[in-house]
Design brief:
This protein is α/β, with parallel strands linked by helices. A 5-stranded parallel beta sheet has the order 2-1-3-4-5, with helices on both faces.
């Protein structure tokens, strides 16, 4: 098969808050992308002057006005006029797209970012560096040969292997990273539960939903999405029940990945 040469890609991310967690940056780093994150346009200009970047992402954490100011200052420098710049936006309406493109951005991607969508954007702008075509491999054959079960496993491993183009090492790394992030988020959920803070639970459920969908943990993603909705109807009883289920399914995911990795090493 043709492997994705993502270790050759350098991306600059301009974010308003470097202390906040960004799962998508963790994912791309695991996959071999070189990521440099800065918090303002001045730092971005310094980095662009110091080294070459294949892409620049302007994060949705920045206000629209700040994003437009950043793009204007970058484009004002003659040496950066052809730099590919992509906005990460919390809305993908035709109006917001037109505004971003008119301001000088090359493309737009929706926040929260899905890893597959990110790969597609990279493939679109860097076709010589990222080939998303899939092919046969031992890992693919193994997954496809597994008999269908009446009870679906917590993670659809086909999705996880396809995400990383059948690269077993990256599947292992990302699987462990997902468990680490999800466990940390679950601990935050328990704090929010103790504080009876439905708003915080809403945010944390939203935070985990996209990453769970990306790896094929659809039942887990559904639980997170339902938790996200409890704040809208102020339903604390449902939130309590969902937290119990989330903890159980996360344990099942951990067990499934542990078994998967042990089988491959055996």
């Amino acid at each position: 098969m043709t492997q994705a040469r993502i270790d050759e890609i350098h991306i600059l991310v301009v974010r308003g808050n470097l202390s906040s967690q960004s799962t998508i940056i963790d994912w791309l780093r695991l996959a071999g992308v070189v990521i440099v994150a800065v918090s303002n346009v001045q730092e971005a200009l310094e980095q662009l002057a110091a080294q070459k970047f294949d892409l620049v992402f302007i994060d949705a954490q920045m206000s629209m006005a700040d994003r437009f100011a950043a793009i204007h200052q970058i484009r004002a420098r003659k040496e950066f006029a052809e730099q590919t710049i992509i906005a990460i936006s919390d809305q993908l309406s035709l109006e917001s797209r037109d505004l971003c493109l008119a301001a000088g951005m090359d493309d737009l991607i929706l926040d929260p970012v899905d890893l597959n969508a990110m790969y597609q954007i990279i493939a679109k702008w860097l076709p010589d560096k990222l080939d998303l075509r899939t092919g046969n491999s031992k890992e693919t054959d193994k997954v496809m040969a597994e008999p269908a079960s009446a009870e679906l496993p917590p993670i659809d491993m086909k999705v996880l292997y396809q995400m990383f183009h059948q690269n077993t090492a990256l599947v292992h790394k990302f699987g462990l990273k997902f468990i680490e992030v999800a466990s940390s988020t679950l601990a935050e959920m328990q704090v929010a539960r103790a504080n009876r803070d439905l708003s915080a639970l809403n945010h944390l459920g939203h935070k985990l939903k996209s990453s769970a969908k990306a790896i094929g943990a659809l039942s887990f993603a559904d639980l997170c999405e339902n938790l996200e909705k409890t704040n809208t109807i102020n339903n604390w009883a449902d939130a309590e029940l969902l937290l119990i289920k989330i903890e159980v399914v996360l344990a099942q995911i951990s067990q499934q990945l542990k078994q998967e990795f042990n089988d491959e090493n055996g």
